[in-house]
Amino acid sequence: MNHNTPLSPRPLHHLPHGLRRVMTVAQLRSHGVPAAETTDRCRPGGPWQQLLPGVVLLHPGPPVSDERLHAVLLYAARERGTGVPAQPGADEAPAPAYADAMITGLAALTLHGFASAPPLPSLDTIDVLVPRLRRLRSTGCARIVRAPSLPAPEQVTGLPVAPVPRALADAVAELEDAGTVHRLLTEAVRGGHCEPTAVVRELTQARLLSRPHVVDAVDSLLAEGRAIAEDRLYRMVREYGLPDPLWNVELRLPGGPCLGGLDAYWPEQAVAVELDVRAPRPQDDERWSEYVRKREHLERLGITVVHITPRKLRDAMEQQAAVVRTALMASDDREPAAYVVVLPR
To answer: Which of 93, 128, 184, 219 has its CA 20 to 30 A from that of 190?
Structure first.
């Protein structure tokens, strides 16, 4: 058989370079390569090789990382026709739509730019997220991860990749080393990839908070998230010209009980800011009730409480500064607040 015979009716050289190197048997068939010829070319010593069931690497030798990623997605994706739109005459055809499949776990974190995630060539397997009811098995370099519903993928280097919180949960599910888990969770927040609450939500849904080393890492994560949120709050006051408040204080009624701690307080205007850094864990319903009770008590005393989430501070700092400024300006129109004692927290 002459392996150099041009393929018809849709020759492979019309495809983008990356797709010419990894294709499914169905895609090859649509480009004029019958299954028997594909099988022949994949024999030992042949020019091609079967990388995964139904997925062919169109050259001899080991695959590079990009080829492994495409191969895993081609293996797991729900086939839609050939999955490779051919555009003769175009320099670059669009990437295929990998239906119902996306890279997750450590490989996804590496693609998202995590310094603490291992380089792609060092990963023996690549996690790929698919719907729970798909009939697929883990094999070769593809490890199948199932979910009741898939998140919206993010496009990274042209590939569908799970959002960071979901990728973290899938990675942590396979990790036993406490140090690695701690480094990944810390980088997620410190590197600005996502908020702690989103990470904890995914870990909770994955039922990973029963593992002691994960719980310890989450506690550190929440402390890290609070420190970052506090720093943003300081920046907001400074950059948007708000008057300096008293930072991290506790209020008490004279000779009475503690009214609770606050992140910032303007005593002359009786305006307080409280960072809402709750994470979605089982005990949070009770914690939220405490938030509500404290807020209602303070407002009955004439103190305005502004709740700000870390995400709003990150994404809409100017808007949050306007909310606080409005509360400060409105103090002249309110009845004087009750006298309270302010103590350092």
So the answer is: 128
